[in-house]
Amino acid sequence: MRILLTNDDGISAPGLQATRRALRELDGVELDVIAPDSNRSATARSITTRSPLSIDEVEFGDGDRGYATDGTPVDCVRFAELGLVGGRPDLIVSGINHGANLGDDITYSGTVAAALEGIILGIPAVAISQQSSGGGMGYVSGQFDFTYAAAFAAQLVTRLTTEAMPEATLINVNCPAGEPRGVEVTKLGKRIYNDELKLVDEEPEGSRKRYEIYGWQPGYEEIEGTDLFAVAQGRIAVTPIHFDLTDHGGLERLRGWGFEEMLAASAPAA
Question: Which pTM value belongs to this model?
Answer without folding.
Answer: 0.92
